[in-house]
From TrEMBL:
Its EC number is 2.1.1.-. It comes from Arabidopsis arenosa (Sand rock-cress). This is Methyltransferase. It holds the Pfam family Sterol_MT_C. Catalyzes the methyl transfer from S-adenosyl-methionine to the methylene group of 24-methylene lophenol to form 24-ethylidene lophenol. GO terms for molecular function: 24-methylenesterol C-methyltransferase activity. The chain crosses the membrane at residues 6-27. It is an enzyme of class 2 (transferase). GO terms for biological process: methylation; sterol biosynthetic process.
Length: 359
């Protein structure tokens, strides 16, 4: 091969690599770039150890049951996955029903706006986002309702990301983000005119603890809506395949134990809420929420190649490959949970804090 052909081939390979990693990198349009993947607040050299530590929680089930350890375990999980989620999914860390003719972005926004419409808040009122992630829902909700949203997340790295996105979106005057535990919130009682939580309370070891804390900080008469991760009426505990799918979902999503749909309203009533409405938003006529996961398979395979290359050349932390592999498997368990109908990530409950405690 003469030198011209050699240079051309090298140029083509370099161009293809650049396109594969940098241009095609963000699986979602305008998402985080593959080159920026990090371990959140964990330093690059500790990502692998933290990944192993994450798994050790599942090897010691007693520990996971002890409520005090769960927030730390969830925090570690979000240090490991936040950048990958943003890169490959976007800024809203939840599912939504597929809407024919609409993009994922629009379907996501519609699902978020529905939450704030349900709690009936007025512009300028104060609302709580319990478990806010990097604030995708918070920004859509603030823009739609003009309410003042305060989000809380256990993960410091997500606070930084959320604040950055709020500022870039010009919504920092409506959106405030706090790092803290939603089982013990740094807010006075009767502070908020409404509250919502999107696919977040599933991380609480006991639902009662997070619901009673949300109840405490809400004003009497105000509304709370939650999209809960549950096992449905189709789930059979004795079915080995069902058990395998649910365990796969718990392990790949930092869940101390998925709860049954039956426990949700019972818990809400137990802490003092009046249940206004309860509906599984995944049920027909809604179109499958898992179709986005299924359609993305080719992109996830491509993402894996990108992660392996970036890890090998030292751009992404070493443990990123393990984390990505775990998420790849999780996508499969979630899809199986959706297809079999034994699992729903959007069991909606709307509750009111009574005007008087004794009501
Ligand atoms: C509510 C929670 C998170 C729900 C979803 C936002 C995430 C659940 C599984 C995640 C993903 C799985 C596969 C990844 C893929 C292999 C990668 O290349 C790109 C990112 C994924 C698509 C990733 C994105 C976020 C999820 C869909 C839980 C934690 C309570
Ligand atoms: C799957 S993400 C959903 C985020 C956001 N609701 C969204 O839809 O984009 C779950 C969120 O709950 C938060 N979370 C979990 N346990 C928490 C706890 N004990 N206290 C505060 N936040 C918590 C996580 O940090 C994360 O931000």
């Amino acid at each position: 091969m003469d030198s011209v052909a050699l240079y051309c081939t090298a140029g083509l390979i370099a161009g293809a690599l650049y396109w594969f990693i940098c241009v095609l990198g963000p699986a979602e349009r305008k998402g985080k770039r593959a080159l920026d993947l990090s371990g959140g607040s964990i330093s690059a050299e500790n990502v692998k150890d933290n990944y192993n530590q994450y798994w050790s929680f599942f090897r010691r089930p007693k520990e996971i049951e002890s409520a005090e350890k769960v927030p730390d375990f969830v925090d570690t999980f979000y240090n490991l996955v936040t950048d990958i989620y943003e890169w490959g999914w976007g800024q809203s860390f939840h599912f939504s029903p597929h809407i024919p003719g609409k993009s994922h972005k629009d379907a996501t926004r519609i699902h978020e706006e529905m939450a704030v419409d349900l709690i009936n808040v007025k512009p300028g009122q104060k609302i709580l986002d319990a478990g806010c992630g990097v604030g995708g829902p918070m920004r859509a909700i603030a823009a739609h309702s003009k309410a003042q949203v305060t989000g809380i997340t256990i993960n410091e790295y997500q606070v930084q990301r959320a604040k950055l996105h709020n500022k870039k979106a010009g919504l920092d005057s409506l959106c405030n983000v706090v790092c803290g535990n939603f089982l013990k919130m740094p807010f006075d009682e009767n502070t908020f005119d409404g509250a919502y939580s999107i696919e977040a309370t599933c991380h609480a070891p006991k639902l009662e603890e997070v619901y009673s804390e949300i109840f405490r900080v809400m004003k009497p008469g105000s509304l709370f809506v939650s999209y809960e991760w549950v096992t449905t009426e189709k789930y059979i505990d004795e079915d080995e395949e069902h058990k395998d799918v649910i365990q796969g979902i718990e392990r790949g999503d930092a869940l101390p134990g998925l709860r049954s749909y039956k426990d949700i309203a019972a818990t809400a009533k137990k802490v003092g809420f009046e249940v206004v409405k309860e509906k599984d938003l995944a049920k027909p006529p809604s179109k499958p929420w898992w179709s986005r996961l299924k359609m993305g398979r080719l992109a996830y395979w491509r993402n894996h190649v990108v992660v392996v290359i970036l890890s090998a050349i030292g751009v992404a932390p070493k443990g990123t490959v393990d984390v990505h592999k775990m998420l790849f498997k999780t996508a499969d368990y979630l899809t199986r949970g959706g297809e079999t109908g034994i699992f729903s990530p959007m069991h909606m409950i709307l509750c009111r804090k009574p005007e008087k405690a004794s009501e």
